[in-house]
Specification:
Helix content is about 40%, strand content about 20%. The protein contains eight helices and twelve strands. It has helices spanning about 10-20, 35-40, 60-70, 85-90, 105-120, 155-165, 170-180, 190-200; strands at about 1-5, 25-30, 45-50, 75-80, 95-100, 125-130, 135, 140-145, 145-150, 170, 210-215, 220. The termini are far apart.
Length: about 220
């Protein structure tokens, strides 16, 4: 296993590095948060171990920036912040795990090994074929042949919901609940407008549509039209 350790506390960083190397883990150690992004992007680490508070760029900001840029490797956040709000902030920034200082080294090692096992497991793509369209739920992409159909997040959710219930009428109130929530201000007319746009984007050019309206009830997807 190879990790990047970002820790500005010289004593703690030196200790963590030494202990990890004693357990046959390769460690590169940086003490300035400004180095995190470049090291992570241009070196193949299994796990990033980032201290929350760092000079230059904080660990949580670096984590957020890496995730926004598509970084997929495991990230463990180290911090003295132990409130629920802080934990939520760290996880929402893209951290896979969160360890509060002070901690026992055996716990850090156990968490790194668990993250290491997870990081080697290949993500299985959830892909289905629907009426000549290919729906990739993992990548959030819909294709017709090799052409990507550009859908908004809501449009993709609607198509996915209909695809999961292929051939079954999905009532408008179910669509409203699953996509927006029953407490939202979205009306039945809004749903109809989304369906109109979605049909246009899925137009095969021969006048056929795989989204059928069931008047007074809702919509269904028919793959064999």
């Amino acid at each position: 296993m190879r990790i990047l350790l970002a820790e500005d506390d010289q004593r703690l960083g030196k200790l963590i590095k030494y202990m990890l190397e004693q357990n046959h883990i390769q460690v590169e150690w940086v003490t300035d948060g400004s180095d995190i992004y470049d090291y992570a992007k241009f070196t193949d680490y299994d796990i990033l171990v980032l201290d929350w508070m760092m000079p230059g760029e904080s660990g949580v900001d670096a984590c957020r920036r890496l995730r926004k840029d598509g970084y997929e490797r495991a990230i463990l956040m180290l911090t003295a912040r132990d409130s629920v709000e802080d934990r939520v902030t760290g996880l929402n920034a893209g951290a896979d795990d969160y360890l509060v200082k002070p901690f026992e080294f055996v716990e850090l090692l156990a968490r790194l090994r668990a993250l290491g096992r997870r990081s080697t497991q290949k993500i299985q793509q959830d892909v289905v074929e629907v009426g000549g369209f290919t729906l990739n739920r993992t990548a959030k992409v819909l294709k017709k042949a090799d052409q990507v159909i550009q859908l908004s997040p809501r449009e993709f959710q609607i198509f996915d919901l209909l695809a999961q219930n292929l051939g079954i009428v999905v009532p408008r109130d179910i669509i409203l609940d699953r996509i927006w929530g029953l407490e939202s201000d979205v009306s039945s007319n809004n749903i109809d407008s989304y369906m109109k746009i979605l049909r246009k984007k899925l137009d095969t050019g021969d006048g056929r549509t795989i989204i059928k309206t069931v008047r007074g009830v809702g919509y269904k997807l028919e793959a064999d039209t």
